[in-house]
Amino acid sequence: MQAGYNKLNITPKEAVRIAGYNRKELSKGVLDPIEINSLVIKENKQTIIISILDSIIIEDSVILPVKQAIFEKYGIPFEQIIIGCIHTHSAPAYFKPFFEDVYIDTELQNSLIDSFVESISLSMNSLKESYLTMEKTEIEGLYGNRNNKNGIVDKSVHVIHFMNSHSKKDICSFIQISCHPTILNGSNLKLSSDLLGWIRQKYQKKTNVPCMIVNGYCGDVSTRFYRELKGEDELERVSSSIINQMNHLHTLETNTEGLKSTTFEKKYSYNGQTDSFVQSEIPHLKEVITQSNDTSKLAMSKMLLHNLEFKASKGEMILNLYSHIIKLGNILFISLPGDITAALGQRIVNAFKNYHVIIIGYCENYSNYFVCNEDYGKYFETYISRLSKGNADDFIQNVIDQTRVLLK
Fold first, then answer.
1. How far is CA 186 from CA 154, 190, 193, in A?
2. Are 359 and 340 within 8 A, CB to CB?
């Protein structure tokens, strides 16, 4: 096996607009770097690329030109290139989130294409004979299911160490965690990769090894019930506490015999004008707004109503959902295109108990929230989903079925 890695600092030097929380102001300074981190894994003639941006979302306007450029340069098919983001709400507005009204600087967005190609190319050029080790721990008392404190959540943190086979020195560390990086709220105007970026920085400093980080199935997971401080102070507290708990990582048994990959792709149609939940909930919310004197309830109801009416105003939408599935020995990397709630992510993990499953969320063209049948309509996530009831379950089951085919 060979591995190559690159970390590229792409922090804008000028003030820019920020995607997240519908902020109108330009950024005012930088709290921590905005990066692209790229990992290449190669075995025999098979090459897999994982390239992750510090951004709230990522879309085909950048993904497809990057994949085309890499295909032309190295002959690597689109299906073997995973491009995603960490979902920070404090990075530049490279893309316009569906429910936000933020100006996108096309020049800034286009600059991402060259940056991705540069980072991936540098990773390709740094390929070295390698091996890996893998560790895991559970994080307690810092984040959980944000709708139900005792609800489903993935509190595991996986760390994969890629090592140079000859020098025995680290090439990079690869961290996977499942938590919304939303400690910084809409009042923050400093560019930041938020919680995941701070974990990445602190782990790099602790180990003196370059590090990348990916987000898993955290659609309904955050620090909501565990907050003690605010802003940067809380960011420091939570990130430091996670790093401290990562002192208790335990080694997992791994093998890397055989690198195989496949993909699953399916289109789903959504129309808010005919969606039964949207059409029944709009009049209900209007009634709540008319009758309620509770200020916080009014504000929430107005926001939810706006989201539903906005979805309805768009008419029919086609979402093309895409998943990469990679088998590296007894490790499975599975990418998913949006905010995957914990119940759905857990279905995938539970289906492959003989494997170490690394789910990478926020990959490919961002498609908002994936909510399972049993939770559909109960919580906030449904109001900003662009999938009809049952679509998320169908997609996840198809990913599981396609993974089983790969493992045969």
1. 26, 10, 14
2. yes
For residue 232, what pLDDT band results from cuts at 50, 70 and 90?
very high
Q: Which of 42, 66, 203, 198 is nearest to 123 (CA)?
A: 42
Q: Which helix (H) or strand (E) holds 62?
A: helix 60-74
* Lookup: tokens for 344: 């759905």
Asked whether the beta carbons of 366 and 55 are under 8 A apart, the reply is: no
Residue 187: other Cβ atoms inside 10 A: 9
User: CA–CA separation, 301 vs 285, rounded Å?
Assistant: 6
What six digits make up the tokens of 244?
């401290």
Cα 127 to chain centroid distance, Å, stands at 25
Residue 136 to residue 139: CA distance in whole angstroms: 10
What stretches of 79-123 adopt beta strand conformation (E)?
Answer: 81-85, 91-92
4: left (phi over 0), alpha (psi -120 to 50) or beta: beta
Cα 207 to the center of its chain, rounded Å: 24
Alpha-carbon distance of 185 to 251, in angstroms, equals 36
d(CA 397, CA 403): 10
CB 72 within 8 A of CB 108: no
Measured CA to CA, the distance from residue 162 to residue 2 in angstroms comes to 9
Distance CA 154, CA 212 (A): 19
363 within 8 A of 337, measured Cβ to Cβ: yes
State pLDDT tens for residues 156-183: 999 999 999 999 999 999 999 999 999 9
- Residues 158, 249: Cα–Cα separation, whole Å: 9
* pLDDT reported for residue 10: 98
Q: Which residue from 364, 380, 398, 392 is spatially nearest to 270, judged by alpha carbons?
A: 392
Name the pTM for this structure. Answer: 0.97
Which of 53, 57, 50, 114 lies closest to 76, judged by CA?
50
SS3 347: helix
Residues 6+ apart with CB under 8 A from 339: 87, 218, 219, 361, 362, 368, 369, 370, 381
Q: What is the pLDDT of residues 274-295, one digit of tens each?
A: 999 999 999 999 999 999 899 9
- Three-state SS for 112? helix
